[in-house]
């Protein structure tokens, strides 16, 4: 799930950016959560906000604590957030890039600029897609949205987080699916389960605990290798 913040002291622009983002994200079948802040002080009032968001749309010209100062304080805690400055003026462009902003977009170009900006961010995030011919029809899925794949009676059942928890069925062996997804972060924890490591919260007591509250069994022969692979994955990201 993409965690996105919009920080702007004008309601009109908060709502407009939200609408443009929702149209874009829904069209790309991405799961998201958007939070709003009316000032830099409000954004920084909880320390977790400095590290919580994948993407932050930050207005520069806010009263008291402006967007650049807010962003620089955020950067003191976290360097991975994709920062987008939004403004009606070009005066602060150079200062804005000192905060390592991925984009600096004008408010009068939002209708076009927001989608172009999101294209660039998703490309940098390397959000990959895969296409399968399910019994429900041919579909293209973002690998980040796939929670796990389950083998059942000659079928592979994909459990995906889209608008709701969704299942797609494919008449093929789980071994074949695993091979197709070999370049992605999927882990075979059981003869019947292939799990997206991005959604594993922890591995313990022969169980994989997922971030949506589900628990999946890990077979004893696979437990040690699964735990080692997960530790290596967490250390690499």
Main features:
237 residues, alpha/beta, 5-stranded parallel sheet, 8 helices, 15 strands, elongated
Helices and strands, with pairings:
Blueprint: E1 2-7, H1 11-27, E2 32-37, H2 40-44, H3 49-52, E3 55-59, H4 67-75, E4 82-87, H5 93-98, E5 103-106, H6 110-125, E6 129-134, E7 137-142, E8 146-152, E9 155-161, E10 165-170, H7 174-180, E11 186-190, E12 193-196, E13 200-204, E14 207-210, E15 215-217, H8 220-236
Helix pairs in contact: 1-6
**What radius of gyration results from the CA coordinates?**
21 Å
Strand order of the largest sheet: 2-1-3-4-5
* Helix content percent band: 25-40%
The low-pLDDT segments are none
Give, in order, the helices and strands.
Answer: EHEHHEHEHEHEEEEEHEEEEEH
Q: How much of the polypeptide forms β-strand, as a percent range?
A: 25-35%
Shape: elongated
Task: State the helix count.
Answer: 8
Average residue pLDDT: 88
Structural class: alpha/beta
The tally of strands reads 15
- What is the rounded distance between the termini? 16 Å
Summarize the biggest pleated sheet.
Answer: 5 strands, parallel
């Amino acid at each position: 799930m993409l965690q996105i913040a919009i920080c702007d002291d004008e309601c009109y622009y908060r709502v407009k950016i939200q609408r443009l983002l929702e149209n874009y994200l829904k069209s790309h079948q991405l799961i998201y959560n958007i939070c709003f802040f009316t000032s830099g002080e409000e954004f920084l009032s909880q320390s977790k906000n400095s590290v919580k968001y994948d993407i932050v749309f930050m207005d520069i010209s806010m009263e008291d604590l402006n967007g650049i100062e807010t962003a620089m304080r955020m950067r003191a805690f976290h360097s991975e957030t994709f920062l987008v400055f939004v403004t009606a003026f070009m005066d602060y462009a150079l200062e804005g890039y000192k905060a390592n902003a991925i984009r600096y977009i004008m408010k009068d170009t939002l209708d076009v600029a927001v989608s172009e900006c999101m294209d660039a961010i998703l490309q940098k995030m390397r959000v990959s897609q895969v296409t399968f011919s399910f019994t429900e029809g041919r579909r293209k899925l973002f690998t980040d949205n796939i929670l796990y794949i389950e083998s059942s009676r000659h079928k592979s059942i994909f459990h995906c987080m889209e608008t709701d928890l969704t299942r797609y069925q494919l008449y093929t062996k789980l071994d074949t699916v695993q091979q197709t997804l070999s370049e992605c972060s999927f882990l075979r924890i059981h003869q019947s389960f292939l799990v997206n490591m991005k959604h594993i919260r922890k591995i313990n007591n022969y169980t994989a605990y997922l971030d949506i509250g589900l628990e999946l069994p890990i077979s004893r022969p696979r437990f040690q290798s699964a735990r080692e692979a997960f530790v290596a994955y967490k250390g690499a990201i």
